[in-house]
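pasting CapA family protein for the record, 372 residues
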Amino acid sequence: MSKKPITVLGVGDVIIDREEPETIFQHVAEVMRAGDITFANCDQTYSDIGYAIRGSATYSASRNIPALLYGGFDVLSLANNHTLDWGRENLIDTMDKLDEVNLPYCGVGRNIEEARKPVILDRDGTKVGFLAYSCVHPKGFEADAKKSGLAPVRIWTIYDQIDYQPGTPPRIVSMAYKEDLEAMVEDIKKLKQEVDVVVVSYHWGQHMIPAVIPMYCHEVGHAAIDAGADLILGTHTHIAKGIEMYKGKAIFYSTGNFAAEIGPGTADGPGGPPTGLLERYNVTADPEMPKGYVSREARNTMIAKAYIEDGEIKKVTYIPCYINNNCEPEIVVKDDQLAQGVFNYIEDISKSENLSVKFSWDGDEVLIQPGE
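structre below
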């Protein structure tokens, strides 16, 4: 007996910090709620307890949870470099509050066993499993046998002097910790035995800078698909990165910012505007988007979309979106010049990183296929 077709949607980073939280999704909520399963990475926690443990802490408040429900989200990742910004009690309280409203999350737990536990959602007989990991986070954010935190895939970085002459640019080598990669592969293989489709989220990559994808992202993403993952959703970089088709499976190296703002709770609190961060990467913030603190190119974003039939992903597209001056994503259609701009940008940065992929319009969505 055939299973009813379903769709899985995925978006990038979410940081909500405004008086009316639901309004950040006002232009996209209808489309996101239409997905059978909709996923997001949350670059903040949702609790009113704890204290900021580092200077770049993002805003945390439980009053933002209804906005996630309004936005149509069915599953979240909390595994990222902000997981423990406000301490372990804050994370546990966030988990409890999400449990109270039946909003599943992955990538974190009261111990490493919980952090590695998947979320499994059943839609009309099709089971979709979600796992989430962080590759970019402060040391100590990892969960262990007795400590809450996130599920890690930690990364080594080596600066290799390839020219004998002093002061010349090094080759940057990055690779996953062997034990973390092995644990991740074990998780995926186990989950694949329990579900039809495996979706894995990674908080990874080089943020702020256009296009560049570190080598470890290829290593980790390819290992995930080799282990049985069907779709990879990358987050963290606050700017969209390229897309690759590897062995017929889509790897979104970063869907970029989706609904992320530096509002008063962060700007006036322990985090503060990340101006020094932008200067470090020689990035100029878009002056017309004062709460964004990202470049104009970072307005190009998307909703990843997987069409599942009979327990398999049959087609992957993305819905082009453009972030307005108030940090709110808006869907843009094919005939809109902004949509063609998103299309061209994603195509250009994918080509610049030599990713195997081909893009074409499929109605108002962009079809993603293996490169020729």
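Residues 337-352 form the longest helix (16 residues).
The chain has nine helices and 20 strands.
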